[in-house]
Structure formats: structure tokens, C-alpha cells
Amino acid sequence: MKKIVFTGGGSAGHVTPNLALMARLKAAGWDTAYIGSKDGIEKEIVEHAGVPFHPIASGKLRRYFDVKNFKDPLNVLKGVGQSYRLLRRLKPDIVFSKGGFVSVPVIIGSWLNRIPVIIHESDYTPGLANKIAMPLATRVCVTFPETMRHVRRNKAVCTGLPIREQIVRGKALNGLSLCDFHKQKPVLLVVGGSLGAQKINEAVRASLDMLLGKFQIIHICGKGNVSAEHEGRRGYKQFEFVYEQLPDLFAASDAVVSRAGSTSIFELLALCKPMLLIPLTLQTSRGDQLLNAESFRKQGFARVLFEEDLTPESLLREVLETMKSGEELRQRMASATRLNGTDAILRLIDHRHRT
Ligand SMILES: CC(=O)N[C@H]1[C@@H](OP(=O)(O)OP(=O)(O)OC[C@H]2O[C@@H](n3ccc(=O)[nH]c3=O)[C@H](O)[C@@H]2O)O[C@H](CO)[C@@H](O)[C@@H]1O
After folding, report:
1. Does residue 288 line the site of ligand 1, with CB under 6 A?
2. Domain co-membership, 83 together with 55
């Protein structure tokens, strides 16, 4: 039986594209397993999808000072040892990595076992984990054509991002009834990335009275971030994290306010949803979301509001503008080439397995 091991995690953007590939490979008779961090979001998501999950120790690669920076290299080393032994036992034909810091020990473990590795980079510029992994990878798949220039030419393939098939199969009526919403007022979905975004959560709640005058609001606010004070308010529905119902919530929404994580914005592009993007700042990230957002703005798929300019008033103004330009944004998205990377990556996996 053909066997593949997946890795990737830290946040859901480094996990959900794997779900799209795993579903298809499982259906084609592959044996699939996952190696991820023992306390990362990937454990919950992968177990939820019914794929065997093998936890390892991992350390975060931080760009800022933290006492954990002294302990984490030891955890990464421990993770390399665990991955090496796991992979020697599992004996996969191939390893596929979606990036994130947990993937580094797994890729080193694969390389030590001489197992071919395909990695995928979601963002406009490669993340630190993928930069470390690239020399050890057989192939490097990318989402944006512009990312090809950061990868050695004989390894780079522009495949696009794998998107879960069910994302485009949501039912608006199910989404509305899940939130207890009606059809008379437009629906705004707010999602601050898979872990939630404090700044966006605060701005939404500070402008809630104004926003609720115009919209019904679905707010995916991240684990532990549901506000008890606003819970149960008519027209305002909060979720920490959503699994199967996400496609229905997407279908029920007229526009979306989102961080500019690559996985999210390509899903919204596939759905032609007018989006207002609030990218992570340079202070809190390497700036990848700023580039993702600028690329989408330039192509006419999204409006962008910088976090530095985020106030309750600017949020309301920009949401109204996004709704107003909804038809224009939708048309631009509908006429664009919208790559779903799933087929191209499956071909690479299959080809690698045969050679
Ligand atoms: C803080 C951080 O490191 N952010 C990075 C992370 O973002 P993050 O992990 O937030 O990733 P994205 O926003 O790109 O993707 C989130 C994924 O989670 C799913 N989802 C979200 C909410 C929910 O309730 N249920 C659910 O299933 C979305 O549909 C999507 O598939 O990875 C992205 C790469 O992909 C990067 O571009 C981001 O810069």
C-alpha cells in the first residue's frame, strides 16, 4: 500500500490545505498519517478528520526575545529524534509538509531516512520554517507565481493552494439558521485568522452598535475569545473555531472581514466573497500578510485596512465600502484564474512515488 506522512501546523493555515490532499489520497487508497506538535491546533483538526496523529516535541522559531528561546532549540532536537524514529517505523514513500515551525524536525527526520519531501509555501514570501526546509526538499510548491523567485529553479513548482472541496459546497440557509439569522439584513463574517485576532475582536465589539444597525454579524474570534458581555445579542453570533459548519457560514455571508492569511484569502477567492483584509503588521510578523493583502488589492479582489488605521469608525466605513463595491469585487474574482492546487500537487506526489 502507498503510504504518505503529512506535517505542518502551529496555526490552521498550515493544516487545512493538508486536509484537502489527505481526503483525496485516502479515497485513492493511500495510507495517510500526520506528524505534528503535541499541543498545536493541528492535533485537534487532524484527529477531527480521522487521520492517525503522531505528536512530537517542537519549538517555535521566534523573531523576538522570549525565555523559551533558550529551551526551544532542545525541543527541536528532541523532535528531530522522535521524527527520525517515527519515520523509520512508518516507512512512508513520501512526506508532504505544509510548513510552520513543527515541520522542521519532521523534514530533517525524513532527510536522515532518505525519504523524499515535498513542501508547500502558502505565502507571497517563504516563512522561516520553509526557508530552513527548502535545501532538504525534493520539490517546493508555491501559491503565488511571484514566490518562484525565492526558490531554486529546479525545485520550484507553482501549483496554487489546495482548497478543501467542501468549502464551496456550503448552504446559506443552514448558515443562517445556525446563527438564528434572517434574510432581511446582509450578513458580515469577521474572522481574525485561525487563532483569532485581539485587535480585530476589540474593534468589532467597540463598533457593534453601529455595525448591527446595518448587518447581522458572525464573529469567529478564536479559542477563549468569546465575549460573555456580548453573548446572546440579537444579530451577533460568536464562535471560537468552526469545523464542518464553516462552508455554511461562508455561504451565508455577503462580505468578510479577515486577516490576510494565505489559506483564508484563497478560500474566499474561490467563493468570490467580497473581502476587507486587515493584515498582520510588521511588528507582529515578517510582513507576509501585508504582501498577500497588497497582491489581492492590486488584482481587485479585496479592500485593505491597515491595523494602524483600525478604529471603530474606520472599520464601519470600510465595511460599508466593501459591501458597496461587492459586485465589482465579485466580478473581478469570478473572471480571475482561480487555481486550486489539489490536482497539481496530487500529480507531483504520484509522480514522485513512481520514480
Ligand atoms: C499568525 C500567523 O502565523 N498567521 C499565518 C497563518 O495564518 P492562519 O493559520 O490564521 O491561516 P489562514 O488564515 O491562512 O487559514 C486559516 C484556515 O483555518 C480555517 N478556519 C478558520 C477559522 C475557523 O473557525 N475554522 C477554520 O477551519 C480557514 O478556513 C483556513 O483554512 O498561516 C498563513 C499561511 O497559510 C499565513 O499566511 C499567516 O500569516
Report:
1. yes
2. yes
Atom of ligand 1 nearest to the CA of 195: 10
Q: Are residues 188 and 229 in the same domain?
A: yes
* Per-residue model confidence (pLDDT) at position 175: 98
Residues 157 and 172 grouped into a single domain: no
CA distance 22 to 33: 9
**Domain shared by 251 and 158, yes or no:** no
Q: Per-10-residue mean pLDDT for the chain, 355 residues long?
A: 95 95 96 94 95 91 62 87 98 97 95 97 91 95 93 92 96 98 97 84 95 97 94 96 96 98 95 97 90 96 97 96 97 88 95 64
Q: How many CB atoms lie within 10 A of CB 169?
A: 11
| Nearest ligand 1 atom, CA 123 | 37
CATH of the domain at 18: 3.40.50.2000
Task: Indicate whether residue 263 lines ligand 1 (CB < 6 A).
Answer: yes
Confirm if 128 and 98 have CB atoms less than 8 A apart.
no
CA distances from 314 to 4, 215, 290 (A): 47, 16, 18
Known binding residue 164? Answer is yes
The pLDDT assigned to 240 comes to: 95
* CB 267 less than 6 A from any atom of ligand 1: yes
Is residue 318 in contact with ligand 1, taking CB distance under 6 Å?
no
pLDDT at residue 1 in the model: 86
pTM: 0.93
**Which structural domain, as residue segments, surrounds residue 275?**
168-335
Please check whether residues 70 and 123 belong to one and the same domain.
Answer: yes
Q: Is 262 annotated as a binding residue?
A: no
Residue type, 321: E
Q: Give the pLDDT score at 62.
A: 59
170 Cβ closer than 6 Å to some ligand 1 atom: no
Ligand 1 geometric centre to CA of 89 (Å):
31
Same domain (yes/no): 43, 178: no
Ligand 1, residue 241: give the atom nearest the CA: 24
ipTM: 0.95
CA distance 121 to 281: 20
Q: Are 238 and 308 in contact (CB under 8 A)?
A: no
